[in-house]
Amino acid sequence: MKTNNIIGRNFRDVISPVYLPMVKDILKELIGSGKDTFRKQVTLPMGETKLTLLVNVTTLKDEYDEFMGTVVVFDDLTQLLKAQRMAAWREVARRIAHEIKNPLTPVQLSAQRLRRRYKDSFPPEDTVFDECTNMIIKQVEDLKNLVNEFSNFARMPASNPSLNDLNGVITEALVLFQEGHKEIEFTFSPSQDIPAFNLDREQIKRVMINLLDNAVAAVDQDGRIEISTSFNPDLQIAAITVSDNGTGIPAEDKPRLFEPYFSTKKTGTGLGLAIVSTIISDHNGYIRVRDNTPKGTRFIVELPIIAEV
Questions:
Q1: Domain with 144 in it
Q2: pLDDT by residue (tens digit) across 187-213?
Q3: Which of 23, 57, 59, 112 is deepest in the core (most CB within 10 A)?
Q4: What is the pLDDT of residue 309?
């Protein structure tokens, strides 16, 4: 809405009817407090996301203490709260990794030693010892992988950008999935207009691996995954889009999708998209999720072009 269409109008005529009850409640709380100022944190739905605002309301009075109006200032806390949650989850991940990792190796080594020492002591038909020790070794290995994910998330390395070809980085990640998932159709439509620019090759490759891994988990045997890149020369922004024809993501899950330990999959740590979001933020970029047409999900990554170190 343009400024000229707002100035001089009553707030009831400008604000969407959806938000009017909340505004009226804030004004009532201001009056009920008996003070000239009032502060409250509110969360508003904005399309498929939520916006967290700190609302500061101040009553204006003249020199005769007569009411002149009300000033409302909004501070957007959305990204600040997200950063605070991310820092808290990293501390949780660090503690989990520290507490669990130490006992895993001796447990695994003990099971392997028992297996080597006594496996041949049992008759061929008695497979319990073999199965149990093998299960211990395998489960400990799975736990180690889990703990490594926690460690990686807790100790995300600082971005180390260098001049790279974005399409080349994507191709490297894509080859791994094309070879390992022959039943899925992968297509890549690279834009030839994107100039080489500064990015952390390994971190952006990790972004693509995580996004492709999610897409593979979402599609069926006849799945189709499409990757494309584009370049906006006016804004100097390179964009990556990863689309699939899978099950899609419910609208209520989208606002939390990039939070640590939140996952729509039955397996995994729930750290993949949180790591993706952190890497993109470190590159001063932005990632968002949208529905695909006619079904599935689209992840869109936008990265600013920085050509000089």
A1: 81-154
A2: 999 999 999 999 999 889 989 998 998
A3: 57
A4: 43
The two structure tokens encoding residue 100: 């669990």
Token readout for 275 is 């790591």
Q: Give the span between the Cα atoms of 35 and 179, in whole angstroms.
A: 67
Alpha carbons 291 and 186: distance in angstroms, whole number: 19
Secondary structure class of 97 (helix, strand, coil): helix
91-116: average pLDDT: 80
Write down the pTM of the prediction. 0.57
Q: Which residues contact 152 (CB under 8 A, 6 or more apart)?
A: 271, 275
Domain count, the chain: 3
Whose CA is closest to 85, among 215, 259, 216?
259
What would the DSSP string read from start to end of 148-191? HHHHHHHTPPPP--EEE-HHHHHHHHHHHHHHH-TTSEEEEE--
Whether residues 60 and 148 share a domain: the answer is no
**39 and 56 in contact (C-beta within 8 Å)?**
yes
**Residue 204 counted as domain residue:** yes
- 76 Cβ neighbours under 8 A, 6+ residues apart: 51, 52, 53
Are 127 and 26 in a shared domain? Answer: no
For 21-171, list the strands marked E by DSSP.
37-46, 49-61, 67-76, 162-164
Rounded to whole angstroms, how far apart are CA atoms 259 and 276?
Answer: 10
